[in-house]
Amino acid sequence: MPEGGFNTDAMTPGEMTRPLGEDGLQRSLAAFNEERFRPGLPEGDWRRDIRRTADWLLEEGEFLEERRAAVAARAAEAPRDADGFVAWFEALEHNGPGQGDPLFPWLAEKATREQFCWFLTQEVAGEAGFEDLAAITQVRLPQRPKLEIAKNYWDEMGRGNPKGMHGPLLETLARRLGLEPRLETTVWESLALANVMAGLAANRRYTYQSVGALGVIEQTAPSRAALVAKGLKRLGVPAGDRHYFDLHAILDVKHSASWNAEAIHPLVAEDPSVAPAIAEGALMRLECGAACFARYRRELGI
Fold first, then answer.
1. For the chain, what is the radius of gyration of the CA atoms?
2. Which residues, in sequence order, are CB contacts of 188 under 8 Å at separation 6+?
3. How confident is the model at residue 14 (pLDDT cuts 50, 70, 90)?
């Protein structure tokens, strides 16, 4: 998230009232995630911190289980053999929720600069930090998946070059376009997407769902990134500023093939019982994306 992202000083998890409705829930969980992933020091009442964290973990658990239940039937249909499962997973690029959404050709060909900036503001606000989620997810995984996720993480980190780090590239675009992502101006569907990704990675019971959710991002993002980059070029955004999307339109194709072969395939081959969990995570992420695209189209009058 760009510097100066969500301001949670006035709304921390322990001080918020119980959220009412989907909008309130997602804004509250977004503030919770902002706080729990922020580096801190052992100050104040740590027992109180644990109690309020426990309250929000229960709230988050209910949310994630609802989302998981919504895709469980389709996920259960995925094959349990490694080759069959990878083929099923790869097909999500064509038959998964939200694929081929008309939003992206419209952005490429017709959106005004103001409309494009609104879209990007929502996307930046909903960016959960792929590199951090990958780093959390790989903890204690077997060697091959762990190494593959580590390679992906290193690419996200610019292979040690600060100028090549993917997060700052997005921040640069946001800054150059004057975007101001704020909690109060972000649609709840975008917040829900980030909250799902954060929740799956942060809770070890959802490790395999997180593997699926991260993997399906790599698989489905390139075509959308290419159309976003095309729209930015049409609107006169310099190549250096739109590099984040140009990069992901190409690099994620390689990431996806490697992720499927070196992370997902060996995990299912070693333990077929994890296949439905990986499928659930992928479908949960795609359903969140589809909901975002539909909301964006309504807001933009498409």
1. 19
2. 22, 23, 25, 26, 27
3. very low
Q: In 3D, which of 155, 270, 271, 260 has the Cα closest to residue 214?
A: 260
Cα separations in angstroms, 101 against 97, 104, 223, 292, 295: 9, 7, 11, 11, 12
- Whole-angstrom distance, CA of residue 34 vs CA of residue 25: 14
Q: Give the pLDDT of residue 128.
A: 79
CA 284/CA 159 separation, integer angstroms: 30
**Does the pLDDT at position 245 exceed 50?**
yes
> What's the CA dihedral at 232, 233, 239, 240 to 10 degrees?
-20
Whether 17 has a pLDDT exceeding 60, the answer reads no
Q: What is the mean pLDDT of residues 3-13?
A: 41
Residue 162, token pair as written in the block:
């600060």
pTM, rounded to two decimals: 0.92
What CA–CA distance (Å, rounded) separates 179 from 25?
24
- Nearest to residue 237, comparing CAs of 193, 178, 286? 178
Half-sphere exposure of 188 (CA within 13 A, CB side): 11
Instruction: Assign 20 a pLDDT band (cuts: 50, 70, 90).
Output: low
The Cα diameter of the chain in Å comes to 54
Alpha-carbon gap, residue 250 to 73, rounded angstroms:
33
Amino acid at 18: R
Q: What is the DSSP string of 246-274?
A: HHHHHHHHHHHHHHIIIIIHHHHHH-GGG
How large is the angle between the packed helices 207-234 and 130-137, nearest 10 degrees?
160
